[in-house]
Amino acid sequence: MKDDFYTQLQDTLGTIPGRDLVILAGDFNAHVGTDRAGWEGTLGRFGVGTNNDNGLRLLSFAAFNNLIIRNSHFQHPRKHQLTWRHPSGKDTAVLDYFLISSRFRSSLKDVRAMRGPDCGSDHYLVHAKLQLRLQRAKRKAPPPAKPNWMRLMDPATKREFQIALSNKFAALAQSDDLDDEEQQISQAILESAAPLCPPNRRRTQPWISDECLNLVDKRKQAKHVDLEQYRHLNREVRQMMKTEREAYWNNVAADLEEAASRHEYRTLYQTLKRLSGKTKSTNDNVKKADGTFVRSASERLQRWKEFFQELYNHDPPQGPPAEPPLIDPPANPFLDDEPTVDEVKTGVRSLKNGKAPGVDQVTAEAIKAGGDVLLHRLHALLSLIWNSERIPSAWKKAMIVPILKKGDNRE
């Protein structure tokens, strides 16, 4: 039974990441004694009594897992060290211990028995004082601002964007290198759209418009300059916020009613979840194949690599090959010729808005708004890909976003 207990305890402790603070506290029914020979890193100078079989098991377990028995590191009167007293009052011992990771040994400031509280047990309450010294979290760099590509829906803005693209392409000669040509096109799109599609401003509420934020900036500038102007702008800001808030919630209510009437429960529940503000915390702990946790970012990437290798690489099927089903030839067979401008135009028109861009940060809205100016340059790039039978390296890169459907997200 003792072996089974320590085996289960070891298995449980092995599943905890090494960077976590580990504290083992409780009645181990062990006498560790005062002899520190061979246990200098585990046992302190203020032990009590002599050790026994259970004490040796506890010392061995603590030494193997880099744990320290902190009861023995604080000098107290003997009555404040003893944690157990026989009901007859003839025998006393230390049976309850606090073990902590050696990395966090300075966090445990004191351990002592509390003899005053009457808890209806032959054990005394054991009190430990813990003080954590947390490292200040490093500020992450803010994510790059995303351009407001929806501005390209405006016809006037779209014309300005096409003119800027035309000027960019006129100064950039077509390259025979795939990667250079792809990079030139993506940079020309981003540079042309930068002044026309400013990034969305951060706001505390989704219903605050850019016009209201601009009015807030004007109010801030007038605060210490013109008090009368400040009061006038303050009234305008409050009235505009009130109007925009009411309009926003009216639109939300109308969308909910429309989704419910159309039985679009997915849209309905997503809207309700967004309004509730409840988010599910994510956990990046990943288990290895042997059940232990990864310790670093490189190990996490290696585990994902192993996962995809197991997922997509299979042994060839055994037995005779299956007979392929009879498939009628398509009415419009695929052409083997180089893609035409009309085919590229059809492909661009079929792109869906609102999709995440690739590593080049070029969205479908930008490609559609480019018009014939961008279309002919894309056709030249696709023709170069067709003839060289190669793909730009940027198009081979992707970001994998794991989405948990069921089970344990650590597996």
Automatic annotation (TrEMBL):
Coiled coil: none annotated. It comes from the Eukaryota. Gene3D superfamilies: Endonuclease/exonuclease/phosphatase. InterPro entries: Endo/exonu/phosph_ase_sf (IPR036691), Swc5/CFDP1/2 (IPR027124). PANTHER family: BUCENTAUR RELATED, CRANIOFACIAL DEVELOPMENT PROTEIN 2-LIKE. This is Endonuclease/exonuclease/phosphatase domain-containing protein. The lineage of its organism: Eukaryota, Metazoa, Chordata, Craniata, Vertebrata.
